[in-house]
## 1
Amino acid sequence: MVVREADASNRGEERKSYGRIWPDWYPVLSTFRKADSRRAIWQLTNTLVPYCCLWYLMIQSIQLGYSYKLTLVLTLAAAAFLVRVFILFHDCVHGSFFTSKKANDIVGYLLGVLVFTSFEDWRFSHLRHHVTYANLDARGFGDIWTLTLKEYEELPRSKRLRYGLYRNPVVLIGLGAFFVFFLSNRLPSRKVKRKERISVLATNLLIIAVFVIAVQVIGWRTYLLIQFPVLWFAGMAGIWLFYVQHQFEGGYWAPKSEWEPLRAAMEGSSFYNLPAVLRWFSSNIGFHHVHHLNPRIPNYHLKKCYDTVPALQTAASFSIRSSLRCIRLKVWDEKRQKMVAFP
């Protein structure tokens, strides 16, 4: 059952939006929006305490002369916790983590330093992503560079090679993690205002301050041998998660005149069905279609929302194994209405 805008004004349990069609189950999602500050504090505790403990062990492994292979094993564990830190940061960006806006902003700024990402600047680009993703006429904000098949075929050879290089998983995920978190995030996004620019500057200064303190306490070599792989591994995992959530077989893209927010969420965002332990480390971000339907639902309510609303269980679902097929997808075929490999 669906409800058109003309009928929605007379029925309180139904919702109208942008003149589109919304299903009668959509208002149920708003019941999961309520933030729980106690759960937020517990999530911060069970994430940051182990993360700090892993840092202590990594520092000791280097300073006591153990093999760097042991340190790298520990960095993988630390990177998993840092992915979780980023999702908590992401919730703060949406104002959904704590009940208090001030708490979301303060914690968001501090977590942003840990993940080398400016709170205000990333909020600007990420919120733009939420209102433009899957819109062919509004690409370029907080998303992965995606061309249509026709656009790709019309490119000169040099630009085809450039696009092909960008979409290569080694570049997109491997080098992309280094580029985004170590380089790109150090500069403001395009079209941002003074507040976002100041946020980038403040984040950079705090990162420098942490580095200076670390140099005095543990030495620059120890710090870099730990911070670089931890952030790099976490960045690769984060980019992969984002890639699978929007670049999958089938999918949904449409020109602005035909773009529908409901279809964009349900068909343009996937459900990454991860094992329980990985779902914990990724803070339920695999329920990505639910998140896009209502970004104010905190991560700790996403699974319950998914389990409660049967319609949400019809979204495209991928396991780790089946998600690997997404690597070959490169362009959007407008005629076939699906993501395809290079011709």
## 2
Amino acid sequence: MFEVTSNRQLAEGVFGLSIKAPQIARHHHAGQFCIIRAAQHCERVPLSIADKDVHAGTITVVVQAVGHSTQEIAGVQAGEFLLDVVGPLGNPTNVGKPARGAFVGGGVGVAAGYLMLQALKGAGAEVVAIIGFRTRDLIIYEDKFRRVSDELIVTTDDGSYGYHGLVTEPLEQQLQEGAQPDLVITVGPVVMMAAVAEVTRPYAIKTIASLNPIMVDGTGMCGACRVTVGGQTKFTCVDGPEFDAHQVDFRELSERLKMYKTNESRADEAGAHHCQVEPAYWRLDERNG
């Protein structure tokens, strides 16, 4: 059993939980994740570790309550307990020694980038972060990103805050103006990561995508998290979660994520969110052939 020491709502349906897990906090590195199960009847949910406090023995995860199991996790209050927290899993982010690094994130995936940015700064890189959300009310971690970024660009799909448009637009503008990073890390929706890869591909900029496919055991045994990278089958939980974004088959990954869409859908048609930007993302892929 793992005690939740705090549970704070960050945006509508998005919660940040600090969890007492001293062993995980001690051994975790940027880019790694954990798998959480709230109770016996719940699914095991992979979540990036968004922050940690080794002295306090805690880790922080950000969860979006969209289905039964994530709602159960999000509903655990301070002083209550989660049944399972397994980690750290996956491989740490390999930032190398870039002179300039960039992080491009969207939605709750933004939370995973905070420690990645710290790793880039620790390697001596100048860091630019571009983070995008559907609307102002869904923005998370802006203050944290400002503290560790040399430049921060916040975008919203509806123009309610910051840059009005997709995260790929300011990224492409910077590349066209010659402000090219040595490394780009992207975390977020599949279509967003695919689009980032298509923007950086013509410039041959090393681009890493942190993937979060369907996952069950987190040990490479079940094969549920398999992805195709460079024509080869990889298991995200043990080979990733980060891969060369220019080699990832994002179309296949997107289709696999839809396998249980009917089963998972709990919202009625009126309340469900329909992605308005997916067509634009895939057009980038077609543009680059």
## 3
Amino acid sequence: MQTTFMTSAKLPVSRIGLGCVTFGREIDAAASHALLDHAYERGVRMFDTAQAYSDGASERILGAWLASRGLPSGAVTVSTKILPPYEPARIALAVDESILRLGVAQIDLLYLHSWDASAHSLEALVSFDALVKAGFVQTIGASNFSLPQLQKALELQQRHGLTRFSVVQNNNNLAVSDVSPAFCAFCAEENVAIVTYSPLGAGFLTGKHKAGVAPGSRFDRIPGHQNIYFKDESYHRLARLEFVASRTGLSPSHLALAWALHQSQIASVLIGGRTTAHIDQAFAAQIFDDEAVLSELGAPML
């Protein structure tokens, strides 16, 4: 279950990671801590948050849990993300604030939360390199980058002798994927670990939005998700998922999670949740190993 990123930092990770986006937004601190406790007990060692999640509340809730549980040094990997534009002063301030909210001396893994042209500026890349060399950040990564964007960033870092992005975090599920075979091949060649998120497509793959956006759901809270998923190909993939589910007697959620967790090129799959049952659901899906069914689910659409 536990592995390490193949980087100089050797960060501990687990095949199933916990995304903390629900903390402070959909569940309070007590429920969040219960979720964290259960995840840790089940072997989860990757905990992922961001300064943008509930305006820093997710980081504060995770930080309070870390402070209260007395975990051994290096027992878990805590990753967080900062928003663009990536300018030296903004980068330094964002990292200082995240360190304060998390209550840590060093951020294990710092992502650029999304692509922005400033990610390719030498000033930004030098700033991230300086954070690593000063010990404020252990490892840096990129999130929501396309293959050309990642390629150019790594080339610039290599050319100037700067700390390279060693982890990339992108969306990957049966409905929508930003992790193509070419992307995976490049990351393997460049020793960049891949972390993915949203294995259920923010709830799209459960089928609950077929008749319209479910009230109180993530698609309701964050309407931008609708533009990502409400497309013909996504609905075709959902239909296939539901057909296979009906044939096998397994739920669409179980099969969608199983598919995401059985992508061999992925280091860790982040799951979100509001209850411990969501964590148990992922572990149950990890056991599913019918290769024929998984191949059928992921086959190209005709």
## 4
Amino acid sequence: MIETRTPAERAYLVGLGLPRSRFDADDSLDELASLVETSDAVVVGRAVQQRRAPDPNTWVGKGKAAEVAAEASRLGADVIVADEELTPTQQRGLEEITGKRVVDRSAVILDIFARHALTKEGRVQVELAQLEYTLPRLRGMWRHLERPGGGIGTRGPGETQLESDRRVLERRLADLRARLDEVRKQRERGRRARGREGLYLAALVGYTNAGKSTLMNALSGAGVLVADQPFATLDPTTRRVALDGGTVILVSDTVGFVNKLPPTLVAAFRATLEELSDADLLVHVVDVGHPNLHERMSVVRETLGTLGLGERTVQVVFNKADVLRGAEGDALREALGAEFPDALFASATTREGVDALRARVAAHAASGWRRVRVTVPYRDGALVQRVRERGSLHGTAYGEAGIEIDADVPADLAAELSGKHVGAQRTRR
């Protein structure tokens, strides 16, 4: 049997150079090319138009749109990809001038999320974001449906097929929002249960493809999916990690951020990103070899701010440090070390800095601990194991009244031990 494969779409990229843009237009198009290739398309060409502001009707202006049309046709492009989220009017205007299908950066990102959503929850979130993106664009996408419906069940006083389709989507949106609300409640119940367990939570955050999942595996041996492409991780993965001394914490790997992330995606994935709200420490993983690392760090900080996490304790980790070679690499390491004196340099490939990161996370976890000397009745001996897991047990002795322990433990466990057991003495660390 002869296998046939649909040829990859040929994409022509278009960017807009605007004053005070965070990323240079060409650098932003490089990132867009990576996103397009992750969607299994082939980039055949690109163009940048410098403007003071986007054209409200065609985004790049009629003259540039005509140039794009000619070049895209010459290169045999199937689709034109704009490096911004277009309004429905701009998308229609470009399509009319170029005679080709036009998609924007948001549509590409949504497509990648749809491909990578593995769990039921992830698929619900992606579908919600896609429908919220699609709804205002119905008139342009389905213009051929703007006619009175015909047939049984389609007739109504003045109702068009487009209006009927819109109502179907709105009902579907309401259903998806209700399902996500239930997901949010389930996650809240799970967080409360985990809170009763009391383990310290460190969450890995960062720009997409910064190496969070690889670092997660190095820290925990979790076996998280690692792929050299944007948004390989959508669903958060949380693992228990035993640090030096036996202390157990939780480490969570989360979805990466990206410049110009569609607002619909941020809203849809808020239920997932709420996992970050319980994190005691945010580990900001940065690809140290990327030329736009400062801009990418700003994107992450701003996204965390929109999630109400701007004041959280953050540990910066410059990942992929094995690329820092020679005099140029040494100079960059020195400059970043001076700018971010508390940052760590790490490489999951060479394991440089992994032990230092584990030690630093342990230090953050222990920073709020209390020293306790208590006698635990033998009937509550399970508490001693909790002390071993959550704190640092310095010594035990077995007396007539129970197990005498000397330990540094988190504040909540210190209060529980001191309030319930005899012979309690507590000193602040």
